[in-house]
């Protein structure tokens, strides 16, 4: 009873679409970053599904690297958010319109 | 096996939906931890034990602690305002666009004809084979990763400094 690879891909697509909804709909930049994490996770799931299907470990290597990039991205991104909050006292992206003249 | 997959997939999808549609970011973060645990369970089903452990340690542990720390540091008492009529069109448009993206991915993947899957080669376990590959074929990316983490540390420290000269 092996789980077919299409199930992994379907779940991956569903999670990715949920993340896209979150990024497009939410205003809170923290929630947007969480949704980006969810999208990265969905891509990891596709990698793992294919790695299991082809019985190759290379897919898991890529997941390893994606996780590293995600950790770096979160560290820098949250520092940016805190810095912006210090200047503008808001975390809502529709109020961060200083570039929009 | 498939039953466990369906249960975990359901947990992942429901908690993912709650991440998106909870109004308070703290609740979103807590549901995201549930989501990460469910996905880690699916990794276990897919014979990726090492990645499952890393998922729990790095994602559900380190990254989410960072998120919760920042949410509590910023101390956002009032939840996001429920309705901003100006953005209603954007919401509908965003959801439509996301669903369209998902359908496009489904269509693209169904076009691909996969070669048949292989039998598992006997021998090394999951962690051993990852370690072997990491220190032979993927040695350069592995080292570059460490530089990336160093850059992230320096960047976070520079951004967190109160005064930029």
Structural description of this entry:
- The complex is a heterodimer of chains A (101) and B (165).
- Chain A is mainly alpha-helical and 101 residues long.
- Chain A has a single domain (5-88), classed as Helix Hairpins (Orthogonal Bundle), CATH 1.10.287.
- Chain A has three helices and no strands.
- Chain A has helices spanning 5-25, 29-54, 58-88.
- The mean pLDDT of chain A is 88.
- Chain B is mainly alpha-helical and 165 residues long.
- Chain B folds into three domains: 1-79, Four Helix Bundle (Hemerythrin (Met), subunit A) (Up-down Bundle); 83-115; 122-165.
- Chain B contains six helices and no strands.
- Chain B has helices at 2-21, 25-45, 49-74, 88-111, 126-134, 139-160.
- In chain B, helix 1 runs antiparallel to helix 2 (25-45) and helix 2 (25-45) runs antiparallel to helix 3 (49-74).
- The mean pLDDT of chain B is 85.
- The chains are: A mainly alpha (101), B mainly alpha (165).
- Chains A and B meet through helix 1, helix 2 and helix 3 of A and helix 1, helix 2, helix 3, helix 4 and helix 5 of B.
């Amino acid at each position: 009873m092996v789980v077919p690879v299409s199930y992994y891909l379907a779940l991956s697509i569903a999670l990715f679409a949920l993340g896209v909804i979150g990024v497009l709909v939410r205003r809170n930049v923290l929630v947007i970053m969480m949704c980006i994490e969810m999208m990265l996770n969905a891509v990891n799931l596709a990698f793992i599904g294919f790695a299991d299907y082809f019985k190759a470990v290379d897919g898991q290597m890529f997941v390893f690297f994606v996780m590293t990039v995600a950790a770096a991205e979160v560290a820098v991104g949250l520092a940016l958010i805190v810095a912006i909050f210090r200047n503008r006292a808001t975390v809502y992206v529709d109020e961060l319109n200083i570039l929009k003249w | 096996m498939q039953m466990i997959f369906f249960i975990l997939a359901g947990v992942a999808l429901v908690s993912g939906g709650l991440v998106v549609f909870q109004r308070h970011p703290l609740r979103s973060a807590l549901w995201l931890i549930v989501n990460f645990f469910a996905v880690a369970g699916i990794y276990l089903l897919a014979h990726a034990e090492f990645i499952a452990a890393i998922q729990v340690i790095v994602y559900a542990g380190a990254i989410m602690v960072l998120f919760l720390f920042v949410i509590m540091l910023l101390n956002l008492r009032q939840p996001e305002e429920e309705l901003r009529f100006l953005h209603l069109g954007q919401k509908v448009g965003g959801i439509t666009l996301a669903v369209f993206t998902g359908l496009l991915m489904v269509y693209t993947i169904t076009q691909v004809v996969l070669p048949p899957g292989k039998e598992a080669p006997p021998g090394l376990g999951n962690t051993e084979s990852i370690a072997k590959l990491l220190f032979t074929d993927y040695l350069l990316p592995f080292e570059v990763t460490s530089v990336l983490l160093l850059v992230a540390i320096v960047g976070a420290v520079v951004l967190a400094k109160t005064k930029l000269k």
